Amino acid sequence: MSKARASLTRTSLVHLALISYAIISVFPVFLTLINSMKDRNAIFRNPMQLPSPKTFDLVGYYTVLGQGDFATYFQNSFIVTVASIALVLLFGAMAAFALSEYRFRGNTLMGLYLAIGIMIPIRLGTVAILQGMVATGLVNTLTALVLVYTAQGIPLAVFILSEFMRTVSDDLKNAGRIDGLSEYAIFFRLVLPLVRPAMATVAVFTMIPIWNDLWFPLILAPSEATKTVTLGSQIFIGQFVTNWNAVLAALSLAIFPVLVLYLVFSRQLIRGITSGAVK
Amino acid sequence: MGSLQLKSVRKSFGNVDVIKGIDLDVKDGEFVIFVGPSGCGKSTLLRIIAGLEDATSGSITIDGTEVVTVPPAKRGIAMVFQSYALYPHLTVKDNMGLGLKQAGAPKDEIEKRVAKASAMLSLEKYLARRPAELSGGQRQRVAIGRAIVREPKLFLFDEPLSNLDAALRVNTRLEIARLHRDLKATMIYVTHDQVEAMTLADKIVVLDAGVIQQVGSPMELYNKPANLFVAGFIGSPGMNFIEASRLGITDAKTFGVRPEHIALSRDGGDWQAKAVHVEHLGADTIVYLESDKVGAFTVRLFGEHHYAPGDAVYATPSSGQTHRFDANGQAIR
Ligand SMILES: Nc1ncnc2c1ncn2[C@@H]1O[C@H](COP(=O)(O)OP(=O)(O)OP(=O)(O)O)[C@@H](O)[C@H]1O
Ligand SMILES: [Mg+2]
User: Fold this and answer.
1) How far is CA B134 from CA A275, B96, B174, in A?
2) Does A101 touch chain B (CB under 8 A)?
3) Do A174 and B86 touch (CB under 8 A)?
4) Taking a C-beta distance cutoff of 8 angstroms, is the pair B273, B295 a contact?
5) Could you say which residues form the signal peptide (chain B) (predicted)?
6) Packing angle between helix A8-36 and helix A244-270, nearest 10 degrees?
7) Domain spanning B239-332 has what CATH number?
8) Using a 6 Å cutoff on CB, does residue B44 contact ligand 1?
9) What is the pLDDT of residue A276?
10) Hey, what CATH class is B4-230 in?
11) Ligand in nearest proximity to the CA of B45
């Protein structure tokens, strides 16, 4: 990117824009973090102030962790998110491979049909989904959430991954066929490693909405045993009194697992082993 | 072991006919080269032979066995691609051994064959490296090695040298010629490059628009082109074509003579002409001429000659080395 004569003003303008965007994005997170460590009065009196020895108070964290069930909530969120991502990636990649690799009747139509899922929000179908889950006895199970999130994530995954898979060299796949690799081996051993950066992108895009979702946990799995973190935090938000310390602490804690997942995937984003495959 | 027969092979993509009925016989141990302009269906034909693409109709026989329904890995072929197509996550050794491993060959057998192939191609030093850590020429040698290890009945090459620079191309070309001598295997080779075609081939197949124009040894094609297309395609600079009526020839439509079969003289000759442009290549001198009688034509002289643009010269086609073509472009003999 470093053009020899990229003008200094231009570069600094770009950086200025990026930096301000970064600050705007990170600020709420920062505010949540600092206020989660202050006592209740300080949160309201000086919300912008960093915790000082006088206002420092971990009461929120005690409340959340003392609640006992929070470990379960975290576990639920984690299971649902990881399972959904895994399924989205697996099925999304397989569908993308079929669409990009094979010529068959209805190929384009199938691609369009899957793409429609990107434009129509899955929440429109909530009533039907709930009826289906009730009929199959899946209400109040994590399976229900995993199924819904998988369905929600697949269209975008197919869309992004099939574009990337079209760029994988035909010669490489053909070399595999001549060497006797099955179509599954070609998919898992040749194509998937080459589209790993795209898979990581899809994983990140899929993960965030799932982790943050309140809607489906509330409707499909509100039982104590299946609550997710986002839903679990709601007990601190009352109609009349809200335990802000606890809410902020719960939110702060909820950042970390998702941060870890993000770091895992973004490492994949950067690592590329494509070079040297073809020319 | 290693003969190939194609019988009226056709291929259409949708309603576009790409291969329009190809019949071809390749004998065991032959080096056959497909040449033709870009888009004429060379790669498609090669992929059909490999089984990577289904023929729309026709039959393909390798070693006397009909293979139309046989998957690529079971056809006893190996293919070298223009883009190398090495497995990026495997070492050179594993790249070469994968085909055998998939076929269930014992480990020491794989080991032995990889060692033999890498010795042939001087790749021993690189066996533990990944493709990304090799130069272009080394990568192409690995790709060739991967083909050798399979000990196929039939080698298929799709423009294997076109990604290499000129010097490397000559070396690798010699290497392929040597391999063909050593392995005595049947090879089918696609190329754009005239020199590759003329130097490597036992038999050249000239394709145009999905149809075979002529099959023959390099010298047959050079000396006795069957039609205008082959005459113009083989040889560089290309053959001069002159309307026969301008020369007073009545039993042909087009008169052809290769640039190297015309003599130039300042004193006298058949066609009076003026030099327009001269290229000095050291070993050759190429003179572009304009003549009132025959129009523009090219002459190739061996060695250095001191002609300059504007010089008035006489050109004389050497008798016995001229060609005549009828109204359909077919050669008249
Ligand atoms: N999958 C495909 N779908 C439709 N048309 C195709 C397909 N593959 C090849 N073609 C067409 O078939 C024709 C022959 O292609 P092919 O790749 O065999 O040409 P080629 O002779 O190898 O050319 P080049 O010398 O440029 O490699 C081309 O016109 C191409 O557009
Ligand atoms: Mg080609």
Assistant:
1) 11, 15, 21
2) no
3) no
4) no
5) none
6) 140
7) 2.40.50.140
8) yes
9) 38
10) alpha beta
11) 1
